[in-house]
Every structure is written in C-alpha cells, then in structure tokens.
C-alpha cells in the first residue's frame, strides 16, 4: 500500500471502554491497515495505521475525540512513510 504511516499513543481513560474496537471500526471504514493494542501502563493505547494522507488526518482527529465512555487526555503522533507490511487492521492483544 502506498501512502503514509501514523504511529500514535492515546493516553487517558481508553482501556476497558471499547476503545480498541472503536478504533478498528473507524480504521476499516477509512480503508486503513495496521493495528491497535492496549499498552502495559493500563492508561494508554498504541496505534499504527497506514493509508492515504486524507484518511489518516481524519483518523487522527477521531483519536483525539474517542468513543463515548472514553476520556482522551493526550495523543502523541508520529508520521512517516508506509511500510506496506499490513493487509488489514487488527486488534493486537499483548
């Protein structure tokens, strides 16, 4: 897949509120590939997504909002070129 890569850490009340499932649903809708995983610190979620720049920009805005029940305190984002290593968007369990 050509395009860009977004790597993010979402911090706040984002575990135990359906955040990973919400992220995957929106990534699928936007045609993104990659993964989402709860971090070991129990208060953040890590995300890697690849796709077109416009879809990633919308996805990043959504990460800042989060689903109902979540409380996003911060989102740390890095961008780079797509690696092409993913063929779908999945939920990774640590």
Write the layout of secondary structure elements.
Elements lengths: L3 E10 L5 H12 L2 E6 L5 E8 L1 H13 L5 E11 L7 E4 L2
Helix pairs in contact: 1-2
Describe this structure in words.
The protein has one domain (4-80): 2-Layer Sandwich (Alpha-Beta Plaits). It has a five-stranded mixed β-sheet with strand order 4-1-3-2-5, covered by helices on one side. Helix 1 runs antiparallel to helix 2. With 94 residues, the chain is of the alpha+beta class. It has helices spanning 19-30, 53-65, and strands at residues 4-13, 33-38, 44-51, 71-81, 89-92.
Question: Looking at CATH, which topology would you report?
Answer: Alpha-Beta Plaits
Order of helices and strands: EHEEHEE
How many strands? 5
* Helical residue percent band: 25-40%
Beta-strand percent range: 35-45%
User: Sheet with the most strands?
Assistant: 5 strands, mixed
Q: Whole-Å distance between the termini?
A: 26 Å
The helix/strand class is alpha+beta
Number of helices: 2
Q: Radius of gyration, Cα only, in angstroms? A: 12 Å
């Amino acid at each position: 897949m050509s395009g860009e890569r977004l790597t993010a850490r979402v911090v706040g009340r984002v575990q135990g509120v359906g955040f990973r499932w919400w992220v995957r649903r929106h990534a699928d809708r936007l045609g993104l590939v990659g993964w989402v995983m709860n971090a070991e610190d129990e208060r953040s979620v890590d995300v890697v997504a690849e796709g077109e720049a416009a879809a990633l920009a919308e996805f990043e805005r959504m990460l800042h909002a989060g689903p109902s029940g979540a409380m996003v305190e911060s989102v740390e984002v890095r961008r780079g070129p797509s690696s092409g290593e993913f063929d779908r968007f999945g939920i990774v369990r640590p």
